[in-house]
Predict the 3D structure of the following.
Amino acid sequence: MINAIIFDLGRVLIDFDFRIAVERLKKRCSVDMFKLLSFFGAHSPAKDFDRGMIDEKEFFTKIQEEMNFPISMEEFIGFWNEIFTEKKEMVALAKSFKGKYKVGILSNTNAWHVAHLKRKHAWVFQFDAFVGSCDVKLMKPDPEIYKLTLKKLGVKPEEAFYTDDIAENIVAAKKLGMDAVQFKGYEPLMVEVKKRGL
């Protein structure tokens, strides 16, 4: 029996597009788009920032070492936080489960984005649990971050339904015994939700 529903955040409840930040930066200074996006790739200081292993100043110092931007950290954060768009149908779906199930959000994210979300998308923190990688120093697909989320929600793995747009995160959840499906859009998810009678 499903007692909790857990959502990934990025590309599931909120879309993001780093190109928006790059285009705004380009108006302010010279930007090598490929170099900047590569800096935020799989094995980069950005992952250490998402994991909470380095703080904001350390991270910005690393960006400056790589990119040499003639702007302040505050200005860069302003550009970097303007990349989000709420997926209204998905937000409404998540909210519709409140009161019927425990609802949680599990996200690989960083301190800049968490602060921005608190200011501009406060609903993200109004569910039963929000687990951000930067706060717990763990990242998906590490099984420990799923276990922590389940503990916060007070449910066993087999009592949780989880959706995430990244396949390896779904595989990790299933290995723990969670019911999990890869997010491919609102309509396909609704098929899975209805199948389960949620």
